[in-house]
Amino acid sequence: MATQLTSAFSKACVARLVTIGLLVAVPLQSQVVGKTALVQQLRSAEWTKRAEAFETLSADSSAFASPSMSAELLHLLETEDELIASTIRESHGRIGVSNKYGEEFGEYHAQVFELCLKRCGKAGLVRVMVHNARQGSESRGTTLELIATVFDQGFSDEQRDQLSGALVSGATDTTSAFNRYFAMNGIGRMLQTTLVSPRRREDMHRAVIANVTDPLTDNRSYAVQTLAKFRDARDRPLLAAIAANDTAVSRGKTVYPVRGAALATLEKLPPP
């Protein structure tokens, strides 16, 4: 009798354990299926669906930690970057992505980039940014500005050289005064760090000097101001000539903004 009771009790325990196992396994299986569906949704043709999937997945701080998921995140960033570019391209520059899809898209895109900066492979992220900063890119200006912002965020010397090279190229973009301005602004920000190589610093210096004869007064003035950040005494003769001869007049008054900027920069340079 005791043996039968023991056997019955053992069977009951086993059954109970199996039941518990099933109860545990079903939610785990559901979680896996749910995550797989969300990953597939990241590749939806509708940006709102992609945004929903991203928001749900990113609620888990480790969701994009694996190599496969970081690759998905990089692909998502490229998808949204292309949506921005195509919107500008198809409207011939008349409509921006925020005009078409609202501020929500801009906030979502910024979140994707921010997380990609943390989780995506740096080589892949550099490739994307350099591609977006290329000549003719619809998002060149904003990417040039972005590059300067993240330049010191864990990139290798070689990767930073690629990023700074994009700014040098942008500073000599003859098709867009805005791109030249954004590039010079980025160069100025990079020079505030110690991460620019001597060779690239010389490239930047030449690119900024090329802008002191820019047709636009604001760009000439900004180029002259940026030269102060190089602190290169070799620029003194050039700046002295600009301070004496630049013809730009501010708002029709006898105020010469570029001349004033040149004088201010001269005061910041070391003696010859």
Describe the structure.
The structure is a single chain. This protein is an all-alpha fold. It has a domain at 39-120. Helices cover 72% and strands 0% of the residues. It contains 13 helices and no strands. The protein has helices spanning 2-41, 47-58, 67-90, 97-101, 103-119, 122-132, 140-150, 157-171, 177-190, 198-210, 217-227, 236-245, 257-268. The longest helix is centred in the first third of the chain and has 40 residues, at 2-41. 31% of the residues are buried.
Morphology call = elongated
Tell me the helix content. Answer: over 70%
Count of discrete alpha- or pi-helical segments spanning 4 or more residues:
13
**Cα radius of gyration in angstroms:** 28 Å
Strand content: under 5%
Order of helices and strands: HHHHHHHHHHHHH
The separation of the N and C termini measures 108 Å
Give average pLDDT, whole number. Answer: 88
Main sheet overview: none
Helix-and-strand structural type: mainly alpha
Kindly state the number of beta strands: 0
Q: Can you tell me the residue ranges where pLDDT is under 50 for at least 5 consecutive residues?
A: 1-6, 12-26
